[in-house]
Amino acid sequence: MERTLIIFKPDAVQRMLVGRILARFEDKGLRIVGMKLQQSPRAQVEKHYEIHKDRPFYRQLVDFMAAGPVIVAALEGPAAISVVRNMLGATDGRQAAPGTIRGDFGLDKQYNLVHASDGPETAELELKLFFKPDELLSYRRAGDQWIASA
Ligand code: CMP
Q1: Does 74 reside within a domain?
Q2: Is the model's pTM score more than 0.90?
Q3: Beta pairing partners, 73
Q4: Fewer CB atoms < 10 Å away: N or C end of the chain?
Q5: Measured between alpha carbons, how far is 135 from 130 in angstroms, rounded to an integer?
Q6: 51, 53, 61: which to mutate for ligand 1, most atoms within 8 A of CB?
Q7: Of 18, 113, 115, 126, which one is the catalytic site residue?
Q8: Edge-first strand listing for the sheet containing 2-8
Q9: pLDDT (tens digit, 9 = 90+) per residue, 30-40?
Q10: In a domain, 143, yes or no
């Protein structure tokens, strides 16, 4: 079992796509173990995207991510980190394959709707950055035994 952090970015909230995108993750069988709406403090966004701080788009990216409310969520499931990344598709919606979230809903590199952790170490750091320990729950759903066999 893995946990991954996703962020419905301000464009997803403003375009009222959160419900449709979240439904894809639920349909896949992933379990929501944390979720909240927030206006991200700039410092938190800067820390989250620290790895990109020398890239030319960094300042613009921080402005974008702090421009309006986002929904942060933690998803759990077998290989959740790579499963969710594959569901998102390529960073740029113009290149993302049809059938992926960005391929179906996006046309831009920056306004790409959802962020997801890219590996186990990043997932751990990002979950800690956005959630307090007691905001993440462990529970079983009635149908879980029919979603993953082991
Ligand atoms: P994300 O997966 O959240 O990780 C870094 C983000 O930076 C990315 O999604 C985009 O929103 C943004 N990004 C990546 N490349 C570019 C780019 N070339 N120009 C503008 N924004 C970008």
Answers
A1: yes
A2: yes
A3: 6, 35
A4: C
A5: 10
A6: 61
A7: 115
A8: 31-38, 70-77, 2-8, 114-116
A9: 999 999 999 99
A10: no
